[in-house]
Task: inverse folding
């Protein structure tokens, strides 16, 4: 089976502290991979290196067979939520998504409205994002990550801040995408989320990774 994401012998340090220690990870096409571990274990840094936001000190990362940082700076067709999704605070949710969609021009405004409804947001709500609740911002982040039909998703705590209904809604969305063959790497502190959504589970501890 083809590997969509390959992490080979990747290490990263900050101020003489190793945050990734010779990490190896292969995620096959269509696979949903879970990542667990305490805060500071290296989960978010690993995700950032895969997305090209952080350059490793050594090792190699490939997405769809191409090297991150060499063949491209940021892998295309990847939907991302890492830490707090960045939006323009003084624009509405729909305007934020429309602005982002205009960069690649692969979806129209009608599709953006559909995605907002899918994640449980009102596309006609003129409220600025700075007035959104944490759960609403998280829903908007999910919308951004999936709106262009990305075939790989890198999601760092995607259910964080959601109420019970929101968790169920987003789980259903991600399960549907998984069933359609979308490749996913998901981190979560909630083992129930990982059990429901993921085919394989890896644990990070002190910058090292192991399969459970």
Result:
């Amino acid at each position: 089976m083809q590997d969509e994401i390959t992490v080979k012998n990747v290490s990263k340090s900050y101020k003489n502290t190793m945050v990734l220690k010779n990490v190896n990870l292969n995620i096959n096409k269509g696979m949903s991979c879970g990542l667990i571990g305490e805060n500071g274990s290296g989960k978010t840094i690993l995700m950032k290196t895969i997305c090209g936001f952080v350059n490793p000190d050594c090792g190699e990362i490939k997405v769809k067979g191409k090297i991150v940082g060499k063949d491209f700076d940021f892998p295309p067709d990847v939907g991302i939520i890492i830490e707090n999704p960045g939006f323009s605070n003084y624009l509405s949710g729909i305007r934020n998504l429309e602005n982002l969609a205009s960069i690649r021009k692969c979806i129209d405004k009608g599709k953006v409205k559909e995605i907002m409804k899918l994640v449980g947001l009102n596309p006609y709500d003129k409220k600025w994002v700075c007035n959104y609740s944490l759960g609403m911002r998280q829903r908007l982040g999910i919308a951004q990550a999936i709106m262009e039909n990305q075939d790989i998703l890198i999601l760092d705590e995607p259910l964080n801040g959601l109420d019970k209904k929101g968790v169920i809604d987003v789980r259903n969305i991600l399960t549907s995408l998984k069933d359609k063959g979308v490749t996913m790497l998901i981190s979560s502190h909630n083992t129930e989320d990982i059990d429901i959504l993921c085919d394989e589970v890896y644990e990070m501890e002190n910058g090292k990774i192991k399969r459970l």
Notes: The mean pLDDT is 91. The radius of gyration is 17 Å.
